[in-house]
Each structure stands twice: as C-alpha cells, then as structure tokens.
Write a structure and sequence with these properties.
Shape: globular
Strand content: under 5%
Helix content: 55-70%
Structural class: mainly alpha
Radius of gyration: 18 Å
Number of strands: 0
Number of helices: 10
Distance between the termini: 7 Å
Length: 207
Amino acid sequence: MPYAIRPGRLFTLATGNWLSRGYLAVLAVSVVAMFAFPDTAVGLDPMMLTAPLSFLGMAFSFGPGTEGSLAVEVLATGFWVGLLLLGALGNAAALGALASRSAGAPARHRTRALLAPAVDNWLSRGYLAVVAAAIGVFLHAVCLSPDPGFAGIWPLMATAPLSIVAITLSGPVGGGSLSLVVFTVGTALAGLCNAVLLGRLARALRR
C-alpha cells in the first residue's frame, strides 16, 4: 500500500501524546544544556537524541565550524539545525505512532504486535539490513582485522540513540570478550527497537 508523508499527520503524531511530548521536552532540555555548558559532554546529547537522522551530517562534513564566508557559515549551521529538527520530528512521530497503536492492546498479543512492525514493511526491513551490515563490519574488524580502529562507530551510529545504553553497559564489564558480546547484543537490540519505531511510523503514514 502507498505511503503519504503528510506534514499535518506527522505533526499530530509528534505532539499528540505523552510519549512524544516527553521526548521533545527532554530534547529541549538537552539543547538548553548544550548552550549553557558548551565545554561538557552534554553538548552531544541533542545529536544523540535525534539520531540516526542527525548523523547524516557527518557524511557531508558540512555544519557548525565550516570555514568560509558568513553566508557559508550560516548555511552550514542551518543545514545542521535542519537535520536536528528533521531527526526530532521523525523520532517524536515514531514514538507517537508507537503510543497510539499500543494503547488498549490485549496483553496476550502485545509482544507479537510490538515486534511485528520491525519486519512487515520495507522501511524497517531496509533499516535492519543497514544495522546488520554495520554490526557485521564491526565484528569483522574486531575479530579478524589486526587493527580494528574505530569500527564500533558504525553500529553505534546506526542504532543511536538507544545504542548509548549498549556502550554504557559494555564499559563496566571489564573489557575483552564479555564487553564485545554486551556491545554487539546491545546494539542489535537497539536496532530492533528502532526498527519497531520505524515500522509503527510507516503504518501510521499508510493510506
């Protein structure tokens, strides 16, 4: 069935329930904190909270700090802000679709109904393919390459913002194989959760 990206429908999903409004409130606080404490790690939160769309800017190397004329700098900053707003709208709409479709579901069907959107549409299936490729590249680099470098950045970016939980949990376990397993499983689960959200959003936009 065709999909229609209607701004009004997206805005309703992004603001019409407690889950999406709570997400937007947390994002607003993180933006304020970014300007209030620019020299701390808090400054990364808006990008993480609006991932994965906000990470597209990293592929273009075009954003705040771009050297050039005033017009170029304004354009670069506007491009970065636009990606953050697009990521915020998409994430809030996905959370709104999840909340609206989950309400009132029978308990015995909730697990199946929750996971089905991760595989029943082209958008979430395509995203899962990207996640699988990112994790595969990471495991190949760690297990087979003599110098894995920063291979973990690929699954981390592909499954953000939930992947921040995976990297946080993999740190305290002492390193080695256990950390590898925790990070791999954690990013896979984060990708599954993101796929569910994308699937819910795709269903909400379906005519």
